[in-house]
């Protein structure tokens, strides 16, 4: 059977539906509380990491010329996820605010589990959808982001991150020796304003004012206010607080992933505001099998940045000659990132080896490490 024919098989797409396993787990957690509240983190992080160890790496290279109509079973999971996530978030809020027998600690732990679903899975699916040309898919991506109050991510990701990754213009390119906790607050502080500047520049180039109806921030605001209003209608002020809590947990998990994806990797400054083109070497690559099933190949991140419009089933992997490699999949790496000394011990030698391999001619890395190289020409 050819590579392309294999991709058409529903069974080949089935492992990417691993995310559905989280839905019965959140029901169990909400009903029983207690020790069951560990189930969602255990499923998304520990079990997947164990499966990565058992299954090893998947180095298959799908046929990138596979037609769109062959990918229906892969796309389907991203298309159905928004109603599933909405049911999980608001169903949990209704349950907690209408007499669930859970104490305060159990409620927070339950909303953390919901945040695992909306952050680890929902934002990853939104990321896939917002890269597509299909208008319905982009709308579904917007709806998923609104459900975690992070709508500006669309603008920041498409108009800033993909253009300026590995330069000081991109806030989510984590710097060498920068701990996650410092990175997280820097990103939370800088990215909304950065996204607004990017849209303002885009509108100015089209000779439109910032209040023009084409500014997506009006849509972002309307969708997020609707999401908050629905939470209030279902659970009052408590429901509103629970909604915000799951959004915080989801955003934290997104930014953990962002931190891992480009830690310490920079593009070479060529002078006069110019940087080298984005290459596979500017993202950490991970082809661990199970975590790529759960995260729909997000860990083949080197290829995603090299070919941003390539759908997830067709993303390629790279060997160590072409792209730097993570020792574990994202679930294991994000857990490590929460402990900066352990993270630096594991990752800093890899960054230094990356520098020697690709940029032996750069003698002083201080401006790159501190984000003091000039802003890219054409950025804000």
TrEMBL record:
What is one GO biological process annotated to this record? Answer: lipid metabolic process
What CDD domains would the database entry show?
Alkane-hydroxylase
Highest taxon listed in the record's lineage: Bacteria
Q: Which UniProt keywords apply?
A: Cell inner membrane, Cell membrane, Iron, Membrane, Metal-binding, Monooxygenase, Oxidoreductase, Transmembrane, Transmembrane helix
Q: Which GO terms describe its cellular component?
A: plasma membrane
Q: Which residues form a coiled coil?
A: none
- Topology in membrane: Multi-pass membrane protein
TM spans, by residue? 76-95, 107-126, 227-252
- Could you tell me one molecular function GO term of this UniProt entry? metal ion binding
Q: Does the keyword DNA repair apply?
A: no
| Cited PANTHER family | ALKANE 1-MONOOXYGENASE 1
Q: Which family does it belong to?
A: Belongs to the fatty acid desaturase type 1 family. AlkB subfamily.
Name this polypeptide is given: Alkane 1-monooxygenase
In which organism is this protein found?
Thioclava dalianensis
Q: The organism's lineage?
A: Bacteria, Pseudomonadati, Pseudomonadota, Alphaproteobacteria, Rhodobacterales
């Amino acid at each position: 059977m050819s590579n392309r024919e294999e991709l058409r098989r529903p069974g080949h797409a089935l492992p990417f539906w691993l995310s559905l396993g989280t839905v019965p787990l959140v029901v169990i957690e909400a009903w029983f509380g207690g020790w069951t509240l560990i189930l969602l983190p255990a499923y998304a992080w520990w079990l997947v990491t164990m499966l990565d160890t058992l299954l090893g790496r998947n180095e298959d290279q799908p046929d990138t010329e596979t037609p769109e109509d062959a990918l229906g079973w892969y796309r389907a999971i991203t298309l159905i996820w928004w109603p599933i996530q909405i049911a999980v978030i608001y169903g949990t809020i209704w349950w907690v605010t209408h007499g669930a027998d859970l104490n305060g600690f159990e409620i927070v732990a339950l909303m953390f589990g919901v945040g695992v679903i909306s952050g680890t899975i929902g934002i990853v699916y939104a990321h896939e959808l917002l890269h597509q040309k299909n208008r319905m898919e982009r709308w579904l991506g917007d709806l998923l982001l609104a459900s975690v109050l992070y709508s500006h991510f669309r603008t920041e990701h498409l108009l800033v991150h993909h253009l300026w990754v590995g330069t000081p213009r991109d806030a989510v390119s984590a710097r060498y020796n920068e701990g996650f906790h410092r990175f997280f607050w820097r990103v939370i502080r800088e990215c909304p304003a950065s996204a607004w500047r990017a849209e303002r520049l885009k509108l100015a180039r089209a000779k439109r004012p910032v209040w023009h109806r084409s500014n997506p921030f009006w849509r972002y605001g309307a969708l997020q206010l609707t999401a908050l209003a629905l939470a209030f209608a279902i659970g009052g002020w408590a429901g509103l607080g629970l909604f915000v809590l799951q959004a915080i947990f989801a955003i934290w998990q997104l930014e953990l992933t962002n931190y891992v994806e480009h830690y310490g990797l920079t593009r070479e400054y060529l002078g006069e505001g110019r940087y080298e083109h984005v290459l596979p070497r500017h993202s950490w690559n991970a082809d661990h099998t199970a975590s790529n099933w759960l995260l729909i190949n997000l860990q083949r991140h080197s290829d995603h940045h090299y070919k941003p419009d390539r759908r997830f089933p067709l993303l390629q992997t790279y060997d160590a000659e072409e792209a730097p490699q993570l020792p574990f999949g994202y679930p294991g790496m994000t857990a490590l990132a929460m402990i900066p000394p352990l993270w630096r011990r594991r990752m800093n030698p890899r960054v230094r080896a990356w520098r020697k391999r690709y940029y032996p001619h750069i003698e002083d890395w201080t401006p790159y490490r501190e984000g003091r190289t000039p802003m890219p020409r054409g950025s804000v």
